[in-house]
Structure formats: C-alpha cells, structure tokens
Design goal:
The chain has 413 residues and is an alpha/beta fold. 36% of the residues lie in helices and 14% in strands. Keywords: Plasmid, Transferase.
Length: 413
C-alpha cells in the first residue's frame, strides 16, 4: 500500500476501492475500514452518496449530510471523481490497479464501459478480490432488475412471516424496522472478502464475488425455511410469537408489556412455578416443547390472565433473579443509554475534519489482539480528493488543478 502509513488492525496494509453507495456496499467497506484497511470511497462530484440526502435529520455543519449517511461511512477517505468522464474513469482504474479489494454495486455490466468491470480490473490487478453486490445477482432472469431492501424483504418471504396474523387488528405482512437485507448482505460481503483474502494468501489468486440481496435474505430464512423444506409446515405470521418454541413472546402485565423468551423445558417449569402455574408444567399437553407449540392457544389462554396481574418491573426482576430470559422493549434512546451498552463501549464520539462532532455505533466484536479502531469520522463528499490523488497516484498540483477546472474531480459538495 502506498500513500499514508498503514493503520493498526488485522487488515492493515490492505487497500479497498469502494465504488458502492447507499448501504450494503458501504456497510461492508466500513467493517473493512474498522478492521484497519484503507478505504477510498469514490463519489460523484456535486452529488455524492445517495444517503447524504436521506434525511431529516441532517448535520448542521454546512455539509447538510444526513444522519443516515453517517451510520456506514467512517474510516474512509472520500474522493469526488466523474466516472462518466474518460479522464475520471482512467483515474479510478489507476486506483483499482493499487487496490487489494474492489467493492461495487452497479447494475450488472454497468462498469464494463468504463473499464472497471471484474475482467478489466483483473487484467491490471490479477490478484484483485472484486465484490459485486446487486439485487438479484450476475445471473438469472432478474439479473438486470434493480433491487431495494423493501422489495427484497417482500420477495424473499421475510414479510410473510413478519407481522400480526391475518384476521387480527393490524394483521398483514410487515417489513422489519431496519434495512436488514442490505445490512446482512454487507455482512456476507465482508465474510466472503475475508475468505477470498485467505485463499489469496495461500495461492496468490484473486477472485470475483457475486452477491445478491435476494440470495442473502433467502439464505437467512433459516428455521422458517427448514420448517417447510423438512417438515411441510408453511410458515405464517405469528406477531411476536415463535413458530416452534412456546412461550416466546410479549405478554401484557398490569402496567405494561414484557418479553418472555423460554427456550427449553427446564426454563418452562421454573417460569410456570414462579407465576403460580406449576401444575401446568406436568400437563401432558405442555410438558414438552413440541406439545406446547401444538397446544399454544390453550396454554396462552391460561397464562395471559395470570401474567396480567403482575407489575412489569416485578416480573422482570423475578425472572432475572431466577436466571430466566425476560425483559422489556426498549426504545432506541433507552438502549443507547443502557448500562450494558455503555459498559461494552458501543457508542463512539468522533469529530469530522472541521471539528463537527458525530456519534457512531461501533464494531461489536472485541478482538483481544487487533481490536477495531475509529480513526476518521464519515467524510464530506470529496474532502480527500486532493490528498488521495497526490499520495496514492502521485499527481502534482498542476494536474489536480487542471482536472478540477475540467470538472473531472471536485473537492467537497
């Protein structure tokens, strides 16, 4: 890696060329950056990543960057280069020649005309690890169709098992409150890139990673898909109930709702004794997990009125004292101020180059020898253009000024 000195971290010494925008790709490259890789984020002059405008809320620092953008773009340097200009495409190809990893989420074949598709980049960097993220993948009848998280949540079957049952007030399919398809695809992209890196370390061979949002979410249907494939049970919406384990849901107490997550027969016996229904644990219908699932309506019909007599805090405290899993539904401000989250150091305060403070949620894994680092706050669009072109590609001041004047590159929006 040329240019700036390598940061500490398990991926130090690796350079990532980030040609992605919105969330799945940037989520992946942020993780790589957290683990020490140098990430060069290429953005369109005058526009930048789409999520910079996905607000409110926006930062009041002159950039007007949305809070959404801040969640996925720390530990990166931003260069603004016009990909559609032949001179701009040539600059990006020069970056690609120095890059260990390229991440992009253009339409299938969209980068070929710029000489930035996998075949073209491999020709100038044979051992490159090139990750393409699309809605439906590089093959198949829908390969040319654009994919968005909401669409994928529906098409993948996720929404068919999310929400209240039909016939209940508010029943019907419901999306998850986070863009989980994008986020999980970003995670799978990171895992795949790390696997490809290990392969390259052993063989010297790079490779192309073809990753689709739809494939990712279908693979994550997990137990719900297995229930159908191996048991013939069509998954359905159960609200907050679990398809296989009972009781595993929310219950109404006298002063609010609580969560009960009973995962085995021993816990069930303890919980039922605690709430004064110990005899039900010996009922043949409920003694084993499979029976409780089949007879859930009968069991819940007895449990609900008893739990409704408890105060929420008292029942949660009793469960915690007994080592049983239970709690409340926290709102976002509550969980971010929770003592456990504070103790784990999940919230980090950073400063942008102009001193503007921003808060980010950190990398969750605690690596004992090579922990994640938080080196640079999410950059303004193009704020590193001059420094990166000079430090990485060796352009002199006159050439940079010429490209600026021609509109090929830019500094900040």
């Amino acid at each position: 890696m040329t240019g700036e000195a390598s940061p500490a971290g398990p991926l130090a010494g690796l350079r990532v060329l980030d040609l992605s925008r919105v969330l799945a790709g940037p989520w992946c490259t942020q993780i790589l950056g957290d683990l020490g890789a140098e990430v060069i984020k290429v953005e369109q002059p005058g526009q930048g990543d789409d999520t910079r405008r996905w607000g409110p809320p926006f930062l009041d620092d002159g950039s007007n960057d949305a809070a959404y953008y801040l969640c996925a773009n720390r530990n990166k340097r931003s260069v603004a280069i016009d990909l559609a200009d032949p001179q701009g495409a040539a600059l990006i190809r020069r970056f690609a020649e120095t890059a260990d990893i390229v991440v992009e989420n253009f339409r299938v074949g969209g980068l070929a005309k710029y000489g930035l598709d996998y075949a073209s980049v491999k020709a100038i960097r044979p051992d490159v690890i090139y990750c393409s993220i699309t809605g439906f993948g590089q093959t198949g009848p829908m390969r040319n169709t654009g994919g968005y998280d909401f669409l994928i949540q529906g098409m993948s079957g996720l929404m068919s098992v999310t929400g209240l049952p039909d016939g209940e007030p508010g029943g019907g399919p419901m999306k998850v409150g986070l863009p989980v398809c994008d986020l999980q695809t970003g995670l799978y992209a990171t895992v795949s890139i790390l696997a490809a890196l290990n392969h390259r370390n052993r063989t010297g061979e790079g490779q192309h990673i073809d990753l689709a949002l739809l494939d990712t979410q279908v693979s994550l249907l997990a137990n719900q898909a297995s229930n159908w494939m191996n048991g013939g049970m069509v998954p359905r919406r159960l609200g907050n109930q679990h398809p296989n384990t009972v009781p595993y849901q929310d219950f109404a107490c006298a002063d609010g709702n609580i969560l009960v997550a009973i995962g085995n027969d021993r816990q069930f016996r303890q919980f039922m004794a605690m709430i004064g229904l110990g005899a039900l644990a010996d009922d043949p219908r409920f003694a084993a997990s499979g029976g409780r699932s089949v007879n859930r309506d009968a069991l819940l019909g007895v449990m609900r009125p008893v739990i409704a007599q408890w105060k929420a805090a008292e029942l949660i405290a009793a469960m915690q004292a007994a080592g049983l899993p239970g709690g409340k539904v926290n709102e976002i401000p509550e969980v971010l101020e929770h003592p456990q989250i504070e103790a784990r150091g999940l919230v980090h305060e950073m400063e942008r180059s102009d001193g503007t403070p921003v808060k980010v949620l950190g990398f969750p894994a605690k690596l004992s020898a090579t922990p994640a680092t938080y080196r640079t706050a999410p950059p303004r669009s193009g704020e590193d253009t001059r420094a990166v072109l000079t430090g990485v590609l060796g352009l002199d001041a006159a050439e940079i000024e010429r490209l600026m004047a021609a509109g090929v590159i830019a500094e900040r929006l």
